[in-house]
Specification:
This protein has 140 residues and is mostly helical. The protein has a domain of 73 residues. Helix content is 73%, strand content 0%. Helix 2 runs antiparallel to helix 3, helix 2 runs antiparallel to helix 5 and helix 3 packs antiparallel against helix 4. The longest helix has 21 residues. It is elongated, with a radius of gyration of 27 Å. The N and C termini lie far apart (74 Å).
């Protein structure tokens, strides 16, 4: 009995390794992505074909963030063929490598706000008005 269980576990592990290692996808270059998308979705349903064409145009225009979102939506469709799913996945990897990291881009956008000149200190009248306003907001 124990031998049968061990053999079964060994068989399942071997199958998992075989399946996991055999489906290695190489990412496309960003230049190849629009052509590969158009080729893979040439015979697809019209809405899938239009979505793939839109993604290809966004990639050509270097609009990677919206292309990423549309590719994720496209990949969630259950009617894709295996080839279409593989191409869309490879394109998504290529686009994700091109998209700028939002965490890195944020400080450069916030830099002009930090460069503003500091405001003059409040006068006594302005401070009193601010205190009254704060009290009103808290007690409202």
């Amino acid at each position: 009995m124990r031998t049968a269980v061990k053999a079964f576990i060994l068989f399942i592990t071997a199958c998992a390794l075989f399946v996991g290692c055999s489906s290695k996808l190489e990412p496309l270059s960003i230049e190849q992505a629009p052509a590969e998308l158009r080729k893979a979705f040439a015979t697809a349903q019209s809405f899938l074909k239009k979505t793939a064409e839109g993604v290809a145009q966004q990639i050509s225009a270097k609009e990677y963030a919206p292309a990423t979102i549309q590719l994720q939506a496209l990949l969630s469709n259950t009617t894709l063929t295996k080839e279409q799913r593989n191409v869309a996945s490879r394109v998504l990897v290529a686009v994700s490598q091109q998209a700028p990291d939002p965490a890195v881009a944020a400080p450069t956008e916030a830099a002009p706000a930090a460069a503003e000149t500091p405001k003059a200190p409040m006068t006594e009248k302005e401070a009193e008005a601010a205190a009254i306003r704060e009290h009103y907001i808290r007690t409202k």
